[in-house]
């Protein structure tokens, strides 16, 4: 019995709020649908609200990290919002620190974080594209000094 | 009632829905045992990992769970049992990051950290039984 999590669009942001205890198949379905929606809508941001989620195991943790990586490749930023303290404590003890996943404490903060990230990326004229591969780690200061 | 579990119930884990049911059953047990929110979350997360192992690596099996009382302590004990291929190298399987499948390799090692007692019995070709206990603080 696969459950479908609704994906809402607010401006340039896709919002997913997980409200039920999803089985693994539903988690995979959400991952695939989100990737398709990012491309279809041209969204710049994805917010995953886990306020109502009382456990995040390694499977769901991996899904969050994978969504963040996939959307980054598709030119969108992901923010996970509303993680409960007990979930954070358990994730760290489990061994999953979700290093590549941006988080914010609330939906409001998450949306503002996405806005700021988008504004910053638009201000800078695509440093990656200009410098080409291998230029990672060269900050704006270093570049200005050349 | 020394070490005996009261009214243990057995749940079949033969599909993805079984993993969800295992989480719900363990949540009820943890609440019955008056675990703190953090202790509840840790136990349910460990159960979720172990139930998934039973399904994916064991080819399905059962979870038997109940409350236990030992030396004045109260806790929840869960037994995950399968008749799958067993684990050839237990030490390796308990290493962080080692995975035989598509997972992150945190199922066994991670769930071990989330409980107070962890016993793994496995016979290659015959199956695996993991028994975990968490005590109320």
UniProtKB/TrEMBL annotation, chain A:
<dbReference type="Pfam" id="PF01740">
    <property type="entry name" value="STAS"/>
</dbReference>
<dbReference type="InterPro" id="IPR036513">
    <property type="entry name" value="STAS_dom_sf"/>
</dbReference>
<feature type="region of interest" description="Disordered">
    <location>
        <begin position="121"/>
        <end position="146"/>
    </location>
</feature>
<dbReference type="InterPro" id="IPR002645">
    <property type="entry name" value="STAS_dom"/>
</dbReference>
<feature type="domain" description="STAS">
    <location>
        <begin position="3"/>
        <end position="114"/>
    </location>
</feature>
<protein>
    <submittedName>
        <fullName>Anti-anti-sigma factor</fullName>
    </submittedName>
</protein>
<dbReference type="InterPro" id="IPR051932">
    <property type="entry name" value="Bact_StressResp_Reg"/>
</dbReference>
<feature type="compositionally biased region" description="Low complexity">
    <location>
        <begin position="128"/>
        <end position="146"/>
    </location>
</feature>
From TrEMBL, chain B:
<dbReference type="InterPro" id="IPR003594">
    <property type="entry name" value="HATPase_dom"/>
</dbReference>
<dbReference type="Pfam" id="PF02518">
    <property type="entry name" value="HATPase_c"/>
</dbReference>
<feature type="domain" description="Histidine kinase/HSP90-like ATPase">
    <location>
        <begin position="40"/>
        <end position="133"/>
    </location>
</feature>
<dbReference type="InterPro" id="IPR036890">
    <property type="entry name" value="HATPase_C_sf"/>
</dbReference>
<protein>
    <submittedName>
        <fullName>Anti-sigma regulatory factor</fullName>
    </submittedName>
</protein>
């Amino acid at each position: 019995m696969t459950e479908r999590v609704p994906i809402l669009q607010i401006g340039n942001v896709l919002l997913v709020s997980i409200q039920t205890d999803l089985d693994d198949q539903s988690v995979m379905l959400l991952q695939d649908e989100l990737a398709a929606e990012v491309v279809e809508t041209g969204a710049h941001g994805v917010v995953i609200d886990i306020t109502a989620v009382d456990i995040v195991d390694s499977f769901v943790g991996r899904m969050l990290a994978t969504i963040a990586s996939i959307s980054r490749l598709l030119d969108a930023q992901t923010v996970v919002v509303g993680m409960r303290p007990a979930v954070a404590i358990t994730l760290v003890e489990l061994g999953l620190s979700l290093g590549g996943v941006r988080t914010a404490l609330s939906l409001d903060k998450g949306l503002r974080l996405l806005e700021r990230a988008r504004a910053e990326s638009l201000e800078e004229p695509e440093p990656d594209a200009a410098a080409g591969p291998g230029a990672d780690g060269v900050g704006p200061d270093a570049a200005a000094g050349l | 009632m020394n070490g005996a579990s009261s009214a243990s119930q057995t749940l079949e884990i033969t599909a993805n829905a079984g993993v969800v049911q295992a989480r719900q059953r363990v949540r009820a047990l943890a609440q019955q045992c008056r675990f703190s929110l953090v202790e509840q979350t840790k136990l349910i997360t460990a159960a979720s990992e172990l139930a998934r192992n039973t399904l994916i690596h064991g080819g399905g099996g059962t979870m038997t769970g109940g409350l236990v009382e030992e030396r004045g302590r109260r806790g929840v004990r869960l037994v995950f049992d399968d008749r799958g291929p067993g684990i050839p190298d237990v030490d390796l399987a308990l290493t962080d990051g080692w995975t035989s499948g598509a997972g992150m390799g945190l199922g066994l090692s991670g769930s071990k950290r989330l409980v107070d007692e962890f016993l793994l019995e496995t016979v290659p070709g015959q199956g695996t039984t993991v028994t975990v206990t968490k005590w109320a603080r």
